[in-house]
Amino acid sequence: MEALYALVLGVLIASGVYLLLRARTFPVVMGLTLISYAVNLFLFAMGRLQSGMPAVIREGGQYTDPLPQALVLTAIVIGFAMTAFVVVLALRSLGEQGNDHVDGEESP
């Protein structure tokens, strides 16, 4: 299971980096989104999630660590805000320059 999880994370990161290296704004936005998903999954995996454990602390009982869930929830909110900002920035650039190339110049 761990190998499959690591493989999925690797594929997400590789796809994100590939899309980041494209010269168009939409693939760059998708690449950033894929990388943020991979980082969120990595944080979940590092939190050692356990099934069947209560999320609320009881006396003398075992509980799950709420820190990874809080970190991932914060990362999801920040990632959504960042994606919205980048999309608006890309649309503004498209409106002013007439193309979606990241450098603003269309290659011949």
Question: What descriptors fit this protein?
Answer:
about 65% helix; Helix Hairpins; mainly alpha; about 0% strand; about 110 residues; 3 helices; NUOK/Mnh_C1-like
- Which topology does CATH recognise? Helix Hairpins
Mean pLDDT: 85
Helix and strand composition category: mainly alpha
- CATH class type: Mainly Alpha
Low-pLDDT regions: none
**What is the terminal-to-terminal distance?**
47 Å
Order of helices and strands: HHH
**Main sheet?**
none
Indicate the overall shape. elongated
Indicate the radius of gyration in whole angstroms: 19 Å
- Total domains, how many? 1
Q: Which architecture does the CATH hierarchy give at level 2? A: Orthogonal Bundle
Helix content: 55-70%
